[in-house]
Amino acid sequence: MFSRVFPVQKGMFDTAGEASSKIKKILKKVGIPPDIVRDVAIAAYETELNLVIHSLGGELTLSVNPEIIELISQDVGPGINDVNMALKEGYSTAPDDVRDMGFGAGMGLPNVQRHCHEFQIASELGRGTTIRAKYFLKNN
Amino acid sequence: MKLAEVAALLDARALCCLGRLDEEVSAAFGSDMMSDVLAFMNEDTLLLTGLVNAHVIRTAEMLELRCIVFVRGKRVNEEIVELAEAQNVVLLTTEKTLYESCGVLFAGGLPGVKRKK
Ligand SMILES: Nc1ncnc2c1ncn2[C@@H]1O[C@H](COP(=O)(O)OP(=O)(O)OP(=O)(O)O)[C@@H](O)[C@H]1O
Ligand SMILES: [Mg+2]
Predict the structure, then answer these.
(1) Residue A59 and residue A129 in contact, taking contact as beta carbons nearer than 8 Å
(2) If you write DSSP's letter for every residue of chain A in order, what string do you get?
C-alpha cells in the first residue's frame, strides 16, 4: 500500500502531463496490468489538464493497494457551476488559447468516466472540485 | 499496415525511431483536437494531425500510440522529436493534407479506430 501526491499549478501548460507521466511510470513499475495502467494514465492526464486549465491549482493523489487503485483530483476552486452539464460530452468553458493547443472540446470528464470502474465528483462554487476514480484489481 | 507502407503511401519522411518502421498499426485516427484523440484512440494505433506541440507527444504517451504522422508539411522542432524518441513513438511527416493523407491510407486498407467503450 502506498500513496503519492502530485501538486499541479494552474496555467502551467508547459509542464502539464508531467504528473500523469510519473503516475504511469509508477504503476508500470509495480506491475499493474497494462490495460489498467493505460486507463489510469488517461484519467490522470484528463484531470491534470483540467487542473491546469480550469482550476486555481490543486493536486493529484495516487493510492495503490493490492485491491484498489484510487486517483483523486482535488483543487482549491473555483468549483463547477453545473456538474451535470460538465459531465456531458461537448460542454466546455475552455478559452480559445486552450483550443489552439488542441484541448477544450468538452470530452475530458466523460472520458475519465469511461476509463475507470467507479467515478465520483463533488464540486462547490468558491471551494473547489474533487474527483475520485477507482480501479478494482481483483475479479476484473 | 506496416509503418514503412504508411510512409511510402504518404511520401512521408521518418523523423525518429527509424528502426521501427517494420512495426504494424491496425487502425488510424485524424484530428487536430487532442481532446478527441484521448476520447477515441486506443493503444498501438496511428494518429494523423496538423497540430505540432509537446502535448501531442504527451497524449501519445498516455494512450501508447505507435506512430504520429504530421500533415501539411508542418515544421517539427528538435524538442518534439526528442520527446517522441524518449516515448518510442514513431514520427512521420508528409506534405499531404489531413484529408488526403487519411484518404490514401483508408484506400490502402487501414481502417479508422473503433472507440473501445
Ligand atoms: N477542476 C475543475 N475546476 C473547475 N471547472 C472544471 C474543472 N474540471 C472541469 N471543469 C469544467 O467542466 C467543463 C468540462 O470539463 P471537460 O474536461 O469535460 O472538458 P474541457 O476540459 O473543457 O475540454 P477537454 O477535456 O475536451 O479538453 C470544463 O470546460 C470546465 O468548465
Ligand atoms: Mg478537460
Answers:
(1) no
(2) -EEEEEEE-TT-GGGTTHHHHHHHHHHHHTT--HHHHHHHHHHHHHHHHHHHHHSS-EEEEEEE-SSEEEEEEEE-S---S-HHHHTSTT-----HHHHHTT--SS-HHHHHHHTSSEEEEEEETTTEEEEEEEEE-S--
- Is B53's Cβ below 8 Å from some Cβ in A? yes
Query: Given this structure, which CATH class describes domain B3-107?
Result: alpha beta
Q: Taking residues A66-82, what's their average pLDDT?
A: 97
ipTM: 0.96
Q: Which atom of ligand 1 is nearest to the CA of A111?
A: 18
CATH number at residue A123: 3.30.565.10
Using an 8 Å CB-CB cutoff, list chain B residues near A43.
none
List chain B domain ranges. Answer: 3-107
Q: Which domain holds residue A130?
A: 2-136
Chain-chain contact of A102 with B34 (C-beta, under 8 angstroms): yes
pLDDT in tens, B5-24: 999 999 999 999 999 999 99
Task: Provide the terminal-to-terminal Cα distance of chain A, rounded to the nearest Å.
Answer: 19
Which-ligand-closest: CA of B34? Answer: 1
Going by alpha carbons, the residue nearest to atom 23 of ligand 1 is A104
CB of B17 within 8 A of CB of B84? yes
Give residue for cell 475507470: A116
Residue nearest to atom 19 of ligand 1 (CA): A106
CB-count exposure of residue A97 (10 Å: 0-12, 13-18, 19+): exposed
Task: Please tell me the distance from the alpha carbon of residue B90 to that of residue B82, in angstroms, as a whole number.
Answer: 11
